[in-house]
Amino acid sequence: MNTRSEELAPAVRSILEAASERSGGDERVSVDARSLSEAFAAAEADGRVPVIAEVKPTSPTTDGARDDDPVALAASMVEGGAAALSVLTEPEHFDGSVENLTRVREAVDVPVLRKDFIVREDQLDAAEADLVLLIARFVGDDLADLVEAARDRGFQPLVEVHTREELAAALAAGAELIGVNNRDLGRLEVDLSTFESVAPEVPDRVTVIAESGITTPADARRMREAGADGLLIGSAIMDSEGEDASGTGGDVSANTRRFTAAESEEEV
Ligand SMILES: O=P(O)(O)OC[C@@H](O)[C@@H](O)c1c[nH]c2ccccc12
């Protein structure tokens, strides 16, 4: 593994240590995946911004945790127009679980991404999902093998990058779905100009998703103008803070709608 661990934030180092020790599934999974590109096309046809809404109970950069039922959260996200969902399965730092993912996927009919720190092939077998995240920086030279291993099982691999170098590695590994993470895993800081500088290098045939730090509808429009086919949004949708008298700040469905409706006339 080529993780350049000396450049990683301590929280991320601890996440990776835990990930390398986590066991995978006993049996190889075989999934019949729901297509992300079809889900994005359906959202576009309907005038919705294609949003992957993320069920993330907590994270190293979040204060507090949300302990609502993940299935109820997922249903609200779909009601708010989310084209797809992302479910954290990392247990130690994000309060996620494979069980949450499985229950959510059974309850909705949109594609579901498994969000975790996969570093070995057997870890792909821990759960069925439509998409799996592979983080270029953490898998290093194993990227092409993991992309292939994921496809062999029926998953659509989403390869996460943060720099142009990682983008080049993702393309060389045959990635067709690429997420540009605006969060730097070294300092854990978010900068939306990351997407703006990396996205122009992505070939048209590749689907590109802007990840992290999208907190307002204006941010969503900014990422779309920079070429995002879809947006991955967690905290701003999960947020129960900022609840106003009408309670809308904590309403996951309304929070989702703010982003899916960011390009429509009646945007609020
Ligand atoms: O909560 P945000 O800033 O909207 O970010 C969502 C998502 O991009 C973020 O959770 C994320 C991006 N890449 C990851 C890798 C692992 C865990 C989490 C992530």
From TrEMBL:
Q: Which GO terms describe its molecular function?
A: indole-3-glycerol-phosphate synthase activity; phosphoribosylanthranilate isomerase activity
- The kind of enzyme this is, by top-level EC class, is lyase
The answer on whether this UniProt entry bears the keyword Transcription reads: no
Family the entry assigns: Belongs to the TrpC family.
Its pathway is: Amino-acid biosynthesis; L-tryptophan biosynthesis; L-tryptophan from chorismate: step 4/5
PANTHER family the UniProt entry points to: INDOLE-3-GLYCEROL-PHOSPHATE SYNTHASE, TRYPTOPHAN BIOSYNTHESIS PROTEIN
Q: What is this protein called?
A: Indole-3-glycerol phosphate synthase
Q: What is its EC number?
A: 4.1.1.48
Q: Where is this region: Disordered?
A: 239-268
Boundaries of every Indole-3-glycerol phosphate synthase domain copy = 12-242
| Keyword field | Amino-acid biosynthesis, Aromatic amino acid biosynthesis, Decarboxylase, Lyase, Tryptophan biosynthesis
Give the SUPFAM superfamilies listed for this entry: Ribulose-phoshate binding barrel (SSF51366)
Keyword Lyase assigned: yes
Example of a GO biological process term: L-tryptophan biosynthetic process
Xref: Pfam families? IGPS (PF00218)
